[in-house]
Amino acid sequence: MTVALLFVFGYPVVRLIMMSFQRTSKGQEVFVGLTNYMALFQDEVFIRAVRNNLTLVLNVPIMVAAALLLAIFLFERIRGWKIYQTTLFLPYLLPIVVVGLIFSYIFQLSGVLNEALIAIGLPQLALDWLGSPKLALWTIMFVIIWKEVGLGVVLFLARLMSVEEELFDAARIDGASWWRIQWHITIPQLSTVIEFFTVISVITMLSWVFNYVYVMTAGGPGNSTMVTELYVYLQGFRYNQMNLAAAASVLILVITGILIFVQFRLRERAGEEETFA
Amino acid sequence: MKPSDKLGRWVGRIVRQAVVILATLMSLFPVYFMVVSAFKTRGEYIANKWGLPTTPILDNFAIAFAGEKFLIRFANSTILTVGSVGISLIIACLAAYAFARMDFPGKRAIFNVLLSLMVVPPVVMLVPLFVSMVRLKLVNTYPGTILIYVGLLLPFSVYLMTNFFRTIPREIMEAAHIDGASSFGVFWRIMMPLSAPAVITLIVVNALWVWNELLIALVFMQKDELKTLMVGITALRSKHYVDIPVTMAGLFIATLPIVVLYMFGQKYFIRGLVSGAVK
Amino acid sequence: MKRFLYALLVVTLCMLTTSPLTVQAAEPVKLVMWWWGEQEAPGAQKWLDETIQLYQEKHPNVTIEEVLQSTDSLIPSFQSAMAAQEGPDIQYFWGGVWTLEFAWGGGVAPIDDLIPADELAHYINNFERTFDGKIWGVPWYLSGNPFVYNPSLFEKAGLDPKKPLETWDALIDACGKLRAINVIPISGGLKDGWFGGWLYSILGRQPHDSEKDIMAAVIGKTKFTDPKHVEWWKRLAELRDAGCWNEDINSLDYQQGMDRFVQGQAAMIFGNDTFLKGWADTMGSWDNIGVMLVPKYADGKMASQYIVTAQGLGITSWSKHKQEAADFLMFMHTQDRLNAWFQYTGVLPADDRLDVSLIEQPQLKQIYEWATTIPGPNLENFIPSMMDEQANFAGTQLLFAGEKTPEELAQMTQDVIDKWASQNPEALENFTKWAQ
User: Fold this and answer.
1) Helix/strand/coil (H, E, C) string of C362-417?
2) Which residue among A38, A145, C120, C232 is buried most deeply as judged by most CB within 10 Å?
């Protein structure tokens, strides 16, 4: 394991950190201190990218809540729950490239969705979903949630099915309301799975959104859907500024590192699980 | 039982069905759109975007298939996926066992570093990785690319397995030790069978990630005979840009294997997720 | 093992008996070529396969391995190779800054000493690859930007299909007439960005005399907020307000916008001449395609030029076989190969030795004439790619979304350039040297 990790992370991270303090001058790498970092903080596009990633992260609760709700409904054995379970998981299986392409066609101004909206007499809702700077990020977020929520549903449902029925029965006999049952039994029983799904969703929103954005909007319109990964990609591969790309990468590492650290600290404090002493 | 209760329950049921049906329709629609479009002529696609095709045609598949090495691409994707998921799973389980159940110096620090590596976007690593891959002559090879994927998958995998192993009560292990089982015996006979849900989740999440990965596959598997399915589809898109039905047919072909696999494996997948769960 | 010993014996014998010169001649050479172009000139792959085969027959000691890159991997792969100083011997480059940035980065070798001057004299448009008195690559084929229209739709709208639009007012007027018969006047797609850069090159040029005027603003001698640089944003807004464009321009990729024209829903498009043959094939005939120069709104020298750039190839600085690579590039420029290129792709090779009688379609004849008599630079090749992306791509999208005024967009361009200059002093230095 150490070999693979050192190879994939160790050397690159060290090199990135070095590069982030340098600049190329006459073919030589010259130490320039924090210049690259200062440049990033003054770059509106970078700030925008960070903000967009954080906006995406803030919507993780929506995704978790949606998955939870659907899982609970299915768990209550509504008619046809098995079929629903299968179909809800389907989007998670589809390649992001495929999903992105299909949704680009659907969300076009003259696409299927808007044709349908106009047909049912709601032309005022037929908006330019991916072409408007105000809407595009939300549209992308919708697509991410659409694709990823199925994993949550299946994980939650599977966990619920292995909970002993008596717990629920006892609560029902005691006359506990639906909300009380969810709050006092379902959610505590699911806590570890919820945590897992939250972690994986946060990672998705922070560092695996490149493909969605690249296929659906390429960061536009007008940088409104710029995300940090795309920023690094553009700096490094389009603008030929490897050192700035490196500095941005290091900043992303630091920011995400802090976020993850905070999350695990919170969990430790909550004391849900045994931790390293 | 009061009548209002009955009414309330009835409303509740309707609401639930409605929500779930709505969500299901939403998950199905894009797939439906892809499938029906793949069977339409270009003219019909423009005139009738969301209905069923009036006279389904298969030409689009023939065009999408023509000159595309779907089988080779499929094999490449499979090799990379199976290789990297398999290797990372084995390493992750062993490492997680150590993190969860053994004591060694610096354990906590190493684990924390690992956690923060979980969120490193792969794009960040591209150039330095390429440099080391070239030095080791590993560009355009399966082992090289698998090595990268394994490295990228490991932090997350170790995190998931460690977390899961920790939920397995120590008493079970201790009982086994008292019965004379070795460390590896405990791991193999007790921990692993109990961990089926976590292992299955990990396989599914990781396999889909590798299967769908684009950037690394693009840069590290450049030769035509080494390209993966996803790279192939992306190229297909720019090749048949004017012909959306053909693109859809190509997407359909590319999606089919994994969906079929899921349909067949679903029973075991769900059963596995439910089976070993511990409280 | 036996074979190995045998080989060893042969090698030893060779070393003992033959002169160094013959050893060198028999030495096997492997050239690796990373390229792109099948995407915009379908048929290129077939031509290249054939060319390599012919070349290998002539030079049995040389093997050439070609790797067709995808649009997404072309630059990342080469940049990675450059960082490792190992990779292809021959690499595909777009013109101008797309070549020179890699030359500045130390990835490309100048070809002056590898290719004789009388050979170079035949190459078209290689000024784009000239910097510091050296030439950093070889042009392959030409890619120009005609304003394409559909004559039958023009006729329906009561416009003269024989006499294309000449003035800006005529263009605005034509938009109205085409709208009246329910045809999209000009179609485009901005979602993937690239078309915003084309628009800049096509419209932004008109008030200026040469690419040096643009580069002067890039290096800070003038400003992008000067009236001459603001003008094109205003004209684009004018076209937008006159209903010249498809309404969904912001939610389509360029290629999807192009599809509107190919399907006969749109009457005009800012096209690329490498696409023309493909369009004619899809539309069933060349009759639905007419070409014109962009109507003028200003009278800088560039306003009456035909935009053309040469897509090309370069030899990498780390290649161990530079001369052999150059020899292959020259082989690509032999007349037989040039003619075959045109026949396979319908795209003009960047060489004046093409047998012009092969060009049959009047449209392509017209383009060849423009490309050789009134060629003008593609401005996207003379600005930093950051400006293209963050000012032109993003700016056109914001203009069509109605988010920003022309003046604000000009300011935005200036801000991007200021940022670029401060982030990348080395590139600024190179640009300054280049702009002279």
Assistant:
1) HHHHHHHHHHHHCEECCHHHHCCHHHHHHHHHHHHHHHHCCCCCHHHHHHHHHHHH
2) C232
Residue C366, pLDDT score? 94
Please give the residue range of the domain that contains residue C338: 29-144+309-376
Residues 6 or more apart whose Cβ sits within 8 Å of residue C291: C146, C147, C148, C149, C273, C276, C363, C366, C367
pTM (two decimals): 0.87
Closest CA to A167 of A195, A194, A189: A189
C39, C84, C255: residue with CB nearest B242:
C255
Total count of domains within chain B: 2
Residue B63 lies in a domain: no
Mean pLDDT of A49-78: 91
- Structural domain contains residue C256: yes
CA separation for the pair C177, C185 (Å, rounded): 9
Confidence of residue B224 (pLDDT cuts 50, 70, 90): confident
Average pLDDT over residues C408-426: 94
Please name each of the domains of chain A with its CATH number: 2-270 (1.10.3720.10)
Give chain A's mean pLDDT.
85
Interface contact C408, partner A, CB < 8 A? no
Residue that terminates a domain, selected from C343, C376, C409 = C376
CB contact under 8 A, A237 and C76: yes
pLDDT tens per residue across span B34-91: 889 889 887 788 777 777 888 888 888 887 777 667 888 889 999 999 999 999 999 9
Q: CB of C259 within 8 A of CB of B242? A: yes
Do B214 and B98 belong together in one domain? yes
- Show residues of chain C in contact with B43, CB under 8 Å: none
Instruction: State whether A260 and B115 contact (CB < 8 Å).
Output: yes
pLDDT tens string B154-206: 888 988 888 888 878 878 777 877 887 787 787 888 788 888 888 888 888 89
Regarding whether B43 and B87 lie in a shared domain, the answer is no
Residue C158 and residue C135 share a domain:
no
Number of domains into which chain C is organized: 2
Q: Are residues C41 and C111 in the same domain?
A: yes
d(CA C189, nearest CA chain B) in Å: 13
CATH of the domain at C208: 3.40.190.10
Domain check: are B119 and B254 in the same one?
A: yes
State whether B42 and B72 are in the same domain. no
pLDDT band at B239 (very low <50, low <70, confident <90, very high): low
Q: Which chains touch C (3 or more CB pairs under 8 A)?
A: A, B
Residue C322, in any domain of the structure: yes
Tell me, yes or no, whether C288 and C423 share the same domain. Answer: yes
Strands C266-270 and C184-186: parallel
Q: Which of A74, A88, A102 sits opposite B33 (nearest CB)?
A: A102
CB contact under 8 Å between C39 and B242, yes or no, is no
